[in-house]
Amino acid sequence: MVGTVAFDAIETPFGKTDKIIGGSASYITMAASYFHNCQYLVSVVGDDFPRSMISRFQESGIDTKGLQIKAGEKSFFWSGRYHNDMNSRDTLMTDLNVLASFDPIIPESYRYASYLMLGNVDPSLQLKVLDQMAKRPRLVMMDTMNFWMDIALESLTEVLKRVDVLTINDEEARQLSGDYSLVRASRRILEMGPKYLIIKKGEHGALLFHEDKVFFAPALPLEEVFDPTGAGDSFAGGIMGYIAHSGDLTFSNMKRAIIYGSAMASFTVEKFGLQRLLELSRPEINHRINEFIDLVQFDISLS
Amino acid sequence: MVGTVAFDAIETPFGKTDKIIGGSASYITMAASYFHNCQYLVSVVGDDFPRSMISRFQESGIDTKGLQIKAGEKSFFWSGRYHNDMNSRDTLMTDLNVLASFDPIIPESYRYASYLMLGNVDPSLQLKVLDQMAKRPRLVMMDTMNFWMDIALESLTEVLKRVDVLTINDEEARQLSGDYSLVRASRRILEMGPKYLIIKKGEHGALLFHEDKVFFAPALPLEEVFDPTGAGDSFAGGIMGYIAHSGDLTFSNMKRAIIYGSAMASFTVEKFGLQRLLELSRPEINHRINEFIDLVQFDISLS
After folding, report:
1. Contact by Cβ (8 Å): A45, A69
2. Which of A8, A64, A68 is nearest to A44 (CA)?
3. CB neighbours (10 Å) of residue A188?
4. Given CA atoms B148, B131, B29, B102 in this order, what sign does their dihedral have?
5. Shortest alpha-carbon distance between residue B138 and chain A (Å)
6. Is B281 an 8 Å CB contact of chain A?
7. CA atoms within 13 A on the CB side of B260
8. Mutation site, A87, A298, A299, A300, interface B, largest B CB count within 10 A
9. Which residue, among A149, A130, A127, A128, has the nearest Cα to A139 in the 3D structure?
10. Distances (CA, A) of B36 to A277, B172, B243, B264
11. Which of A241, A243, A173, A250 lies closest to A206, judged by CA?
């Protein structure tokens, strides 16, 4: 897992936080840890980052040899405020700090990893990571965003050729393909390299495209979305964790993985930040998976 | 079925129509006719309405004794223009014409109907219809919209107490309940009378709430939405037709009905107006139902 480990400060209609732990890699590895107990973390923090959280990663089976700690520097910090509908937010502050000069170095022992998750960072860094792998992983999944489409489309296009799974949201799929129809957009994007495209639609669920097939995973209708931060990353973490655990790269298993990812995202939004992801139990996850089964299960036999 | 039979003129990014046949009752009865071959239509048109369409209704098993034809008057006319995203539209013209003085008269032979669909008309007219029934139908389904919540909330509330199923969209559910969360909104609305609440989310599918249960029916991801007019009505028609055909009012069967309704809506948007609904075949419907099954089917066995 390569991505950010950071501080966030979040305001929602329900309250606000001080600096809490955030970053894509934090959500992704913690969500994945419920399925797979051997992960490698590549990221960078300042020496303001709490040792206790690093220990917490380790307790969850996350190797932190690849987590660079920059003495005298500060960790990446983001703060944002969500609007009442929880679907839009304003960024109040972005302090790149250590991230400005992040050079991902993959420790020797990581270079044979079978599953590689490229979090949402500069595509040129994602390329650097791919180039350091000693062998092509069985599966490479990549997250990105509109920002990189705006300013780094060329290197983004290079990364796309070398990944198996791309996760983006619906607006980003439209921007990347230049097509409003998600069905046509998915065809164009699959021609750019990935074998699987996952289009995230937030509270409206997610679509998985592969060859000429499509699968829809719903979001669980929740009484309250408390804090949407990290939902997309927890979704990706659940997917990667489930795939790494099962070792099965078929379309059927990818569908299962996306349901597990959706379940992890549904937990994350129930509390501020990482809080809910740090306290989950296996029975809770199974119970939630059953809720997803009930949510979409119907029985039609065509005569 | 009580609702409008009308003329529409529609502009979409793909083209525009002259006056074509529209109206909620046209879509609902035609969609339902693929499942149930004995329907009663209560509506009003002017003598400008084509006899050929009335014959077409009759050929589809729709009794038109309750369709009032007002000599020397004009049919209800609506024209609208869809924006590029197909999710929003501007109304260009609304000529109520015969609808302004519509007084729904239920023919004697209709008054024992087992299934009653109250289309989106003035709630005071919906009440008049209910009052004319000789016995309480097994199932009453009602459609309405924000407009009636704004100007006729009191009579709308009266109708709600006397129906089994309410269909509205997500924004209308929020307005009617005063709650942004659809889960909480559904609880409040179910307390107002209906046993089932169906919340339509357009391209994002639909939610069915009943007691403490929830079911999600996806919309089929389409390459092109050609004309969204009548999608919600075709959805309702598919549901009512399927229920009347099966006679089964259980939650499991309501789930099936909503999948059939979603399939009918997915056809309607493929061409302008009623066109697609007039030319469907049973194998096409079965094929589409299979696409819905494939779209959401996954296989997780929890150990």
Report:
1. yes
2. A68
3. 14
4. negative
5. 23
6. no
7. 30
8. A298
9. A130
10. 50, 29, 9, 14
11. A173
Collapse the DSSP code of A49 into the 3-class scheme (helix H, G, I; strand E, B; otherwise coil) and give the result: coil
Collapsing DSSP states into helix, strand and coil, what is residue A59? helix
- 3-state DSSP assignment of residue A265: helix
Q: Which member of A85, A295, A300 has the closest CB to residue B289?
A: A300
Identify the three-state secondary structure at position B89.
Answer: strand
Q: At what angle do helices A231-246 and A251-268 cross, to 10 degrees?
A: 140
* Smallest CA–CA distance from B259 into chain A, residue: A298
| Dihedral-angle region of residue B48 (phi above 0 means left; psi in -120 to 50 means alpha; beta otherwise) | alpha
Type of residue numbered A105: I
For chain A (length 303 residues), average pLDDT per consecutive 10?
A: 97 92 98 97 98 98 98 97 85 95 97 97 98 98 97 98 98 96 97 98 96 97 93 98 97 98 97 96 97 96 78
Q: Where are the alpha helices (DSSP H) in chain B?
A: 24-32, 51-59, 123-132, 146-151, 153-160, 170-177, 182-191, 231-246, 251-268, 282-296
Q: Which residue has the tokens 């650097």?
A: A128
The answer to whether A191 faces chain B, any CB pair under 8 Å, is: no
Residue B219 DSSP one-character state: P
Average pLDDT, chain B: 96
The reply to whether residue B181 touches residue A222, judged by beta carbons under 8 angstroms, is: yes
Write out the two tokens for B198: 């169906």
Strand order in the sheet with A139-143: A115-118, A139-143, A165-169, A196-200, A206-210, A213-217
Give the predicted TM-score (pTM) of the model: 0.95
With contacts defined as CB-CB under 8 Å, which chain A residues touch B228? none
**ipTM given for this complex:** 0.92
